Amino acid sequence: MKKISIAIVDDKRLLRNTLTEQIQYNQPIEVLFTAENGIDFLQQMEKRPKNNQPLVVLMDIEMPEMDGIETVLIAKEIYPDIQFLMLTAFSEDEKIFDAVKAGASGYLLKDESIAKIISSISELLYEGSVPMSPIVAKRTLEMLKVSEKSFQKAENESEAASDVIEYLTSREMDILQEIVSGLNYKEIADKLFISPHTVRKHIANIYEKLHVSNKTAAIKIALKKRWF
Predict the structure, then answer these.
(1) CA–CA dist 137, 122 (Å, integer)
(2) What is residue 128's DSSP assignment?
(3) Are 87 and 60 in contact (CB under 8 A)?
(4) Helix H segments across 25-169?
């Protein structure tokens, strides 16, 4: 049986080493590499051949230099086929929602058993499930209900595209237009004379305001509303 290749991203070395040892012990999983933060992860990914990349990444949220949410937001644009499973000690509503919007495929707390983590990796790949610790699943459902009600209320208040356009800043509209045009982060940054980091922040705000989690969904809304 072919092993499932994964990567582990966490700023605590002891945890990275412990997880690596426990996950690989008599299990069909291979840890290709570990990273101490998002920047380290992205740099290591750049050096890896396309045929030797992780299928799943266990990603911590709270890390120095670049946290897990920003890392997933960037990485999903570059490596759309990789699944990101957030593995964190935090279960705050805001963090959960931000992780899901960034493109995470699941959210487990670090106190879950190794058996649960391993089964979640397998389920994520082979069954298309969305692994979540019970407490996280409950909070996510509650947040989605609130978000859906808010969105429906906004839709009912006005169907006019101008209302949403006014909700986006002029800079966000500029960046959204470049996204629709097919430019990537760096190309947008170069064209608008701003940093790629600033572009990523604006895109995160656009996704939040449009209630989407990826570029395709944002483009779909922009085209449907005929903004450009």
Answers:
(1) 18
(2) -
(3) yes
(4) 38-47, 68-78, 93-102, 114-126, 134-157, 161-167
Please tell me the distance from the alpha carbon of residue 9 to that of residue 82, in angstroms, as a whole number.
14
Query: How many C-beta atoms lie closer than 10 Å to residue 23's C-beta?
Result: 19
Residues 216/209, Cβ–Cβ less than 8 Å: no
Does residue 209 contact residue 154 with C-beta atoms inside 8 Å? no
Which residues make Cβ contacts (< 8 Å) with residue 208, sequence separation at least 6?
A: 101
68 burial via Cβ count (<10 Å: 0-12, 13-18, 19+): buried
Angle between helices 93-102 and 134-157 (to 10 degrees): 70
Question: Which residue in 9, 11, 51, 54 sits closest to 29, CA to CA?
Answer: 54
- 190, 175 Cβ separation under 8 angstroms: no
State the Cα–Cα distance between residues 99 and 71, nearest whole angstrom.
Answer: 10
Q: Which two tokens stand for residue 163?
A: 């209302």
Distance, in Å, from the CA atom of 101 to the CA atom of 207, rounded to the nearest integer, reads 8
Distance (Å, whole) CA 23 – CA 30: 8
In the predicted structure, residue 49 carries a pLDDT above the cut 70: yes
In which band, very low, low, confident or very high, does the pLDDT at 108 lie, cut at 50, 70 and 90?
Answer: confident
Whole-model pTM?
Answer: 0.60
Residue 175: count other Cβ atoms within 10 Å of its Cβ: 27
